[in-house]
């Protein structure tokens, strides 16, 4: 039996990298995509040495249609099909009140967090549908709760949720689920703690600091495992849902 084939976007670090590692552990062939050059990614160098036949990395900006097409083409050429895609690529900035936000920066946020996903679904949907596969979308609590100075991020994630609902409505041969992963211990959280104090109310900012100080951030390895397991096994009954990582419907996908 051939191995399942999973694509992970935003795979160079953080949640994406952890998802790649978990998917390989679970016996998949994995294609990771990211903007960072492979030569600058020691973790990926190690992965490719350990799994030369089962891991592949594609460097490029997925807001570009040629890069999106190339990612699909390289995956098919190397592994023959696509079973699932974990749509993880995303950015937080700009961090400012709407009145102070640079519009070009806000548009860049939407390009990465929303239009990039739309584009890659458009380019990959035929292959994923052939396998009755899955799209697992990494959403956020910010999609449903306004966070001071996170206007572009919250709005792009809200739009991303609707995109997931639309795919579920339009594509009967694909299962699409949006995951609210909780507050995960990644570089994004470090950015918030180190650089965002000027843009957020003190009490909101302190909440993020306290999560780190009390060791209550979600472990990135747990998130990666949950996403990989969902990409492999999520049932059709979950199609079109936006689910919190602690939801009992996802209990079977948690790392023990």
TrEMBL record:
Gene3D superfamilies: NAD(P)-binding Rossmann-like Domain
Keyword terms of this UniProt record: NADP, Oxidoreductase
Entries under Pfam families matching the protein: adh_short
Keyword NADP: yes
GO molecular function, one term: oxidoreductase activity, acting on NAD(P)H, oxygen as acceptor
Domain of life: Eukaryota
Family: Belongs to the short-chain dehydrogenases/reductases (SDR) family.
Official protein name in the record: NAD(P)-binding protein
